[in-house]
Amino acid sequence: RVEEKKREVIELDEKILHSEEEQAAWFDALSRSKHQTNAFMGLLFLAGKQRYVFWDELRNRFDIPRSAIKQLERKGLVRLFEMGLSDLIEQQESIDQPELSEEQLQAFGQIEEEWQDKQVVLLQGVTGSGKTHIYARKIRNLLKEDPNAQVLFLLPEIALTTVTLVRLRALFGEQVLVYHSRLTPKERLTSWHKVLKGQNIVLGPRSSLFLPFSNLKLVIVDEEHDPSYRQDIRKPYYHGRDAAIMLAAFHKARVLLGSATP
Question: pTM of the full predicted structure?
Answer without folding.
Answer: 0.67
